[in-house]
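User: quick one, sequence for these tokens?
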């Protein structure tokens, strides 16, 4: 078999189109076609890349007398890492939409469903994932889940998004152990409107220790416009009770001191009174 015959055979065995292989190697589709037709020959770096991609030796590609038994060296056969890589070889669906495979599993996966170290697709799963729905160590998407997710809705250890939830969360609406946002809920909550054990807010803070323009705290409340803290009824025991008149007063203060463009946050924070 010639080099071109082997490249064509290996490409088809691994479910790659000429366009897909060209994208991986950073060459044109015409280059792949010429290689497979033995019109031209790939550069050394491309040969090495293809030997890694197809899990074969460069000798197998270059020597016409080499047969299938030469596709792996004895050293590679006994190498645990190589065997793992071999079992995790890239695979793609043959069916594509607008040039993108329906699914792709590989190191740099691109598909409607993509799974790999670096995955990009409508649904992406990987160490680095980008998609409408993404799951990964580092994930970016409309719905994002992972250790460090970024998206419209983010859930993870460190979450950043419009709506975020995590041990550490940052967003327009943030909830977590430590949260930072316009509307923030957490053990330690910091934002325009904050609710938590330690609540620090620009406009309203509600919690055990509260600091804001309008502060309502079970134990401590520090407010520049209004403050209300609980009453000590026993040693280390405080109780906070708001009367209907106090609730009405607080709601009126919220309406008059908070900018109108934050109307949605004002309505939410009122639910906690």
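Assistant:
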């Amino acid at each position: 078999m010639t080099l071109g015959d082997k490249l064509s055979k290996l490409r088809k065995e691994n479910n790659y189109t000429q366009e897909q292989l060209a994208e991986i190697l950073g060459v044109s589709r015409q280059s792949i076609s010429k290689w497979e037709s033995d019109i031209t020959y790939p550069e050394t770096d491309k040969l090495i890349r293809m030997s890694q991609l197809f899990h074969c030796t460069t000798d197998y590609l270059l020597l016409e007398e080499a047969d299938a038994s030469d596709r792996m060296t004895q050293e590679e056969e006994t190498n645990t890492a190589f065997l793992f890589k071999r079992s995790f070889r890239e695979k793609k669906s043959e069916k594509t939409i607008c040039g993108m495979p329906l699914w792709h599993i590989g190191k740099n996966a691109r598909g409607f469903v993509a799974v790999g170290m670096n995955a990009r697709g409508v649904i992406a799963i990987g160490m680095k994932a980008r998609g409408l729905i993404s799951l990964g160590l580092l994930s970016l998407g409309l719905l994002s889940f992972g250790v460090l997710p970024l998206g419209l809705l983010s859930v993870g250890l460190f979450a950043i998004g419009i709506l975020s939830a995590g041990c550490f969360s940052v967003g327009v609406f943030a909830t977590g152990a430590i949260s930072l946002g316009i509307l923030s809920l957490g053990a330690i909550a910091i934002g325009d409107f904050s609710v938590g054990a330690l609540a620090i807010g620009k406009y309203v803070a509600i919690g055990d220790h509260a600091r804001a323009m309008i502060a309502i705290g079970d134990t401590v409340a520090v407010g520049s416009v209004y403050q209300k803290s609980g009453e000590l009824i026993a040693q280390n025991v405080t109780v906070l009770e708001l009367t209907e008149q106090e609730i009405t007063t607080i709601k009126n203060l919220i309406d008059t001191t908070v900018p109108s463009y934050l109307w949605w946050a004002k309505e939410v924070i009122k639910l906690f009174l």
